[in-house]
Amino acid sequence: MSRRVFRLAGSEESWPMTEKLLLAQGYAFSPAPFYQGARLLDHEPLPLGASLAARFGYIYIQDASSMLPALALNRLRKPGQDPNPSPTLALDLCASPGGKTSLLARLLGHTAMVLGNEPAPKRLGVLRNNLRLLNIFNAASLGCPGEALPLVRENFDLVLLDPPCSGWGTAEKHPKVLDIWQGSKLKPLVSLQKRLLRAALDLLRPGGLLLYSTCTLNIQENEEQIAWALDNIPGLTSLPLESFPGFSFEAPAPCAPESLRITSGGQGFYLAALGKAKKPGVAPPPLPGSDLSTGLSPSGLAAPLLDPSLLPPGWIESRPDGLYFQHAAGTKLRPLDPYNARSGDPRAQSGGTQGRRTRKNAPDDSPPWQGFFIGKRGAGPRDLLPPPTLALQNRAAVLQAENLAPLLALVSGQSLPGFAGEKEAGLYYRDLPLGRLKCRNGRVFL
Questions:
Q1: Residue ranges in the chain whose pLDDT is less than 70
Q2: Contact 330, 141 (CB under 8 A)
Q3: pLDDT per residue as tens digits for the range 387-434
C-alpha cells in the first residue's frame, strides 16, 4: 500500500515553522521526491487531519498522484514568452474538494488567479471552505455545470480538467469500483467527459494549455478521450509530459503516446496535455472585462490585526453577508451578458440561471463567481495577520504560544486568560500566525 502523503499548504516562508509544529506534536515525515512541498508521512500519533497544522490550514492531505495535474500544468507553462504578458488566468473545471485548485494557485503565485468551478452545491461549499482554510487569496469559485459556464469563450490561459470518472485507480482503497463501473454503466460517464472536454477547450484561449487527468486507468476514459479531441477539435496539439520521480508508469495506449499512466507511488492516475494553436494574423482587440475597479480599496481594511498589503492586487467587494476579495486578474474574466440571454450565446440562459442560483446575497452588478471571503468588516483570515511584533506596535492584543499547551486548550473549546477591554486578539505559534481569538470578560477563545 502506498505511503500517506500530505503537502505544506501555506507560503514557502511558513514551511519551516509548519514542520516544527508537526514535530512538536510527534509527527514524523520525510521529503517526497516529486515536489518540494510534499511530505511522506512516517508516523502519526493522532490522525493527521486532527493535527494543529491541519486545524489551522497549514497542511493539506492529498494523494501523491492527485498533486501531479497542477504540478504538470505549471511545469508546461513558459512565463516570459508571451509578447504581451499579463496575469495568468486559470480554470479548474471540476474543482471540489479544492486540492488541485489550491495547489495550482500556490504554484502560479499571487499575480495569477485560479477560478474553481463545482456544480454540486454541497461540494461547492466544501471547495469554498477549503480555499478559505488554506488562505488562497488568488482563487475564486463558481457553481455552474461545467458544460455551460456563464463565461465568454477563449478566456483562460490554463485549464485543468479532472472530470468525474470510474475511479479504477482507487481500487486499492475502494475495490468495489471495478465491479460498479463496467460495461454500459461507463457510457454516460464517457459521454459527460467528452462534453466537459469540449467545453474546457472552448474556454481555453489560443496559445493556452489544458491538462486532462483522471483517477482511472480505463483507456476509454483516458487515451481514447484525448484521441477523440485531437480528431474532432481543430487546432489542438498533443504535448509530451515528463515523468515524475517516485512513481511507476506504464506505457500509454498508442492513440495518445505522450500521456502518462501512473500505476504506483500513488493511486492509479492518468495525465495528458493539449495545446491550442494561436490564430494567425493580428489578434482582435480584447472584449471588455469585468469592472471590479468600482469595489473598495483593500487599504480601507487596515486595522491593528489586519494588514491589507499582504493581499495580491485587487479590490474588495461588499456584500450583505460580508466582504469578498476580487483578484485583479479577474478583470480578464468575461461573463456572458449579465445573467440573461441578451448576448445571443445559447449557453447564456442555462449558465446565467445557475449563476443567479449560487449568487446568494450578491449585489446585482457583481460577477457570477465568488471571490475570496474576507469576513465581516474588522475581521479577516489568518494570512492577513501582521507579524506579531508589528501587531504589538499597533497596540493590538497578541497571544504568542511558545508551546502546544495553550493551542491544545483552545482547539478543545477551552478559554484562556485574555485581555480586558479587547474584542479580538491575534494567535501565533512562535511567530507563525494561526488566527484570531475572540475576547470576552477578560478571557480568549476560538
A1: 1-2, 79-85, 168-184, 281-295, 337-366, 377-379
A2: no
A3: 999 999 999 999 999 999 999 999 999 999 999 999 999 999 999 999
Query: From residue 184, how far is each of 15, 177, 181, 222, 225 by CA, in Å?
Result: 47, 14, 8, 17, 17
pLDDT, tens digit (0-9, with 9 covering 90-100), for 176-233: 655 555 666 788 999 999 999 999 999 999 999 999 999 999 999 999 999 999 999 9
Q: Are strands 38-43 and 443-445 parallel, antiparallel or unpaired?
A: unpaired
Judge if pTM exceeds 0.85: yes
Place of cell 511558545: 402
Task: Answer whether 17's CB lies under 8 Å from 430's CB.
Answer: yes
Nearest-angstrom CA–CA distance, 368 and 145:
13
Question: Mind telling me the catalytic residues?
Answer: 215
Cell 486532527 identifies what position? 50
Residue 257 corresponds to which cell in the numbers above?
503516446
Closest CA to 213 of 244, 180, 182: 244
Give the CA distances from residue 224 to residues 205, 213, 252, 356, in Å, rounded to whole numbers and listed in that order: 23, 13, 11, 36
Which residues lie below 8 Å from residue 389, measured CB to CB, with a gap of 6+?
none
Helix, strand and coil in the chain, % to nearest 5: 30, 25, 45
Which grid cell is 78? 513558459
- CA 168, 128, 140, 341 dihedral sign is positive
